Amino acid sequence: MKLVYSRRALTDLAEISTYYTVSASPAVAASIGQRLEDVIARISRAPESAPKVSKRSGIRVAESKH
After folding, report:
1. 3: which residues sit within 8 A by CB, 6+ positions away?
2. 49: which residues sit within 8 A by CB, 6+ positions away?
3. Residue 66's pLDDT is what?
4. What is the domain partition of the chain in residue ranges?
């Protein structure tokens, strides 16, 4: 599966990293970044593990369960 990051996604990832580095600590930011990378890698290996946003586009997303 080809993984493509939108500009918005890259901006969001940078903002998430900055937020947690400042508001918590660099270690917390690194931990969250690693979790995001793990989820992204899982979807790349097994796309069916993430639901499609739309059948026509074939785009898939990983939704967080809070």
Report:
1. 40, 43, 44
2. 42, 43, 62
3. 43
4. 1-66
**DSSP class of 52:** B
User: How many C-beta atoms surround the C-beta of residue 41 within 10 A?
Assistant: 11
Interval 20-55: pLDDT, tens = 999 999 999 999 999 999 988 888 888 777 776 766
Model-level pTM greater than 0.85?
A: no
Q: Cβ contacts of residue 42 below 8 Å, gap of 6+?
A: 49, 62
Q: d(Cα 48, Cα 58) in Å, to the nearest integer? A: 11
Please give the Cα distance from 17 to 29 (Å, whole number).
5
